[in-house]
Write a structure and sequence with these properties.
seven-stranded mixed beta sheet; two-stranded antiparallel sheet; 14 helices; binds nicotinamide-adenine-dinucleotide; binds glycine
Length: about 350
């Protein structure tokens, strides 16, 4: 069955389609939303290319599009200015015009990099997201945030640039290593905490990869719909969309604590959510049972409940230096299962609690 969710942004509405086997229909579906496109500039990575590019290439050709493939090395290091420049150059040498289309085939790294290249080449061309990791399917391919990393930090140069279409084929998830699948589960669990008690309970009833894969289409549809709801109300991340950062402020500290090597983003977010729930209990905002259930659920998916972190790394991650003692921030807390709020506090107060 095909699930379709429409991200109804004024003047830039687009569909998210979810169905097994969708990769094989990508050409006709891209042609339907970009009928003027002749060339499809596909960006993918070195792991995904051998697995899924051949099917995409065939489908694009059958739809009358000319595919050109650009492969970047797998891994976060490819979200960098040098790869972006290579993409721009590749697009121009391939003869890309403003009526053509860029296609991101891969995880969040490829999606963010290809999306930013599409936002900037020729002052912006259409792009399509074909996410192939769980994290990219439930989070990064939806909502139009695109970016690269700079030496000063992650995602520091980017743009809000919405895709024209998102095609999710859950069959692509079967080839994910367990740790990469678990990373995505941290974000899936996050949606349950901040936006749907019923969804959280349904995850508790299926605490394994196999259990989730048995109902993967509805899991993807629920997550994308919850994200859609926040994105359409706050595309530019000034208010409600920040609720998606539950677990991420402390998660950044844990990524930093492991120098971006020891802990993956999903692992760091997992420990960040559990710690935020514990802090919420201390502050009298979060019911204690939520912290317990959340810790049990992340553990069931092999995600950590806690990660060691120094005060220096916490301070750096929340942006507290000696000059910033009085600075205020919002910590996302869960006040009841399926509901979150932005809790205002002084950064120094948070550091003290940690
Ligand atoms: P990733 O893109 O690096 O993918 C993880 C690994 O899985 C890579 O080695 C990749 O080659 C491999 N892979 C991808 N699909 C596969 C498949 N189907 N089978 C086998 N291997 C596969 O990482 P990710 O976790 O997907 O994304 C992380 C990135 O997403 C970060 O850069 C983060 O900043 C970004 N992100 C962006 C947003 C947003 O809103 N734009 C949101 C969350 C995260
Ligand atoms: N991943 C957070 C956001 O899209 O806002």
């Amino acid at each position: 069955m095909l699930h379709t969710i429409t991200v109804d942004l004024p003047g830039r509405a687009y569909d998210i389609h979810i169905a097994p086997g969708l990769l094989h229909q990508a050409g006709e579906r891209i042609h339907a939303v970009c009928p003027q496109a002749a060339l499809a500039y596909v960006v993918t990575d070195s792991n995904v290319h051998p697995l899924y590019y051949p099917a995409l290439e065939r489908s694009l050709q059958q739809a009358g599009l000319t595919p050109v493939c650009h492969v970047v090395p797998a891994g976060e290091a490819s979200k960098c200015p040098a790869q972006l420049t290579r993409l721009w150059e590749g697009m121009l040498s391939a003869g890309l015009t403003r009526s053509d289309v860029v296609v991101a085939l891969g995880g969040g790294v490829v999606g963010d990099l290809a999306g930013f290249s599409a936002a900037t080449i020729l002052r912006g061309v259409d792009y399509i997201q074909i996410p192939t990791t769980l994290l990219a399917q439930v989070d990064s391919s939806v909502g139009g945030k695109t970016a690269i990393d700079l030496p000063q930090g992650k995602n520091l140069a980017g743009a809000f640039w919405q895709p024209r279409l998102v095609l999710m084929d859950p069959d692509t998830l079967h080839t994910l290593p367990d740790e990469v699948f678990a990373d995505g589960m941290a974000e899936v669990i996050k949606y349950g905490c901040i936006a749907s008690e019923a969804f959280f309970r349904s995850l508790e009833r299926r605490p394994s990869r196999q259990g989730i894969m048995a109902v993967i289409e509805s899991v993807l549809a629920v997550c994308c719909d919850l994200k859609r709801e926040l994105v359409v109300q706050d595309e530019r991340d000034h208010g409600l969309r920040m609720l998606l950062n539950f677990g991420h402020t402390l998660g950044h500290a844990y990524e930093l604590a492991g120098r971006y090597q020891t802990w993956s983003h999903g692992q760091a977010v997992s420990a960040g959510m559990v710690r935020a729930a514990e802090l919420g209990v201390t502050l009298g905002v979060t019911p204690p049972s939520i912290a317990v259930r959340l810790a049990e659920l992340v553990s069931a998916f092999g995600l950590p409940r806690s990660i060691p972190c120094t005060q220096e790394d916490y301070a750096a991650a929340i942006g507290l230096d000696k000059k910033g003692q009085g600075a205020r921030m919002h910590l996302i807390l869960v006040d009841r299962l399926g509901h979150a709020l932005a809790y205002p506090m002084k950064k120094a107060q948070l550091l003290q609690l940690l």
